[in-house]
Amino acid sequence: MKFTKVQGSGNDFVLLEADESKRDWSRLAVAMCDRHFGIGADGLLLVLPSNKADFKMRMFDPDGSEAEACGNGLRCLVKYVLEKGLFNKNASQMNVETMAGTRKVKLEGTGGKIASIEVSMGEPRFAAGDIPLVIEPGGELVDIKKMLGYPLTIDNTNLLLNLVSMGNPHAVYFWQRPVSEFPLSRLGPKVENLPVFPNRVNFEVAQVVSRQKIEARVWERGAGETLACGSGACAIAVAAHLHGYIDNKVDIKLPGGVLGVEWDGAGEVFLSGPAEIVFIGEWPNENVKKG
Questions:
Q1: Domains located in the chain, CATH noted
Q2: What is the pTM of this model?
Q3: Alpha carbon distance 205, 217 (integer Å)
Q4: Which of 2, 57, 124, 214 has the fewest beta carbons closer than 10 A?
């Protein structure tokens, strides 16, 4: 089985061209993403045919769970299909089906050479059922203000979490000190697995540097700390915009690089950043188990 290793701002993936035949993709993701006994990656990306869009994307985390959305993975998939000649490089737009809905991709370039890839990450959502968040009896939280300051205490640390769904769940914590000082390796897995998040949650810690720049680190559900997270960058920008910390465009500086996010406070969130093909290889077919 031929694979391609891709990365966006250090968020790396193993990418496969696939079909809808039954395979145990979860088990394969665990094997291929292992950084000691496999290829090593933050996730397994599948490029599939689609009846609704130009392509379909599925993404499995290193623990075998399937993610609803993945911004860096989406850009890497687009880079791959363009470089492989599976889509017209002169086109200005592409549509990709994901678990979170069909995502629009804006392509800019000249002479068949793509200069930038900007992807729509859909509209942010805030209701408890969208995160999802388990709340006490008495009705569903739909007030955005309440979701932008949800108090939790973990290991005697008080956290005001900003809860945003970008098709997948995010909890953003704004930290007044350098994010390098935050104990993410200790608190990240505890936030991810809190009982109030039945589907677990991605956890971001962010420091607002200016109205145009935010520094952040991410603990990804099913993967641990990663060098970057596209949907996480979008969630950070949305929460920061609603708090009035930033303007419509912001650069999110993560350990693996910078991602650009644009949101005007309503409608879709747009994500831009690098996407690169790293290398190609072959995975033994005997390690692919049919489901």
A1: 2-122+275-287 (3.10.310.10), 144-267 (3.10.310.10)
A2: 0.91
A3: 6
A4: 2
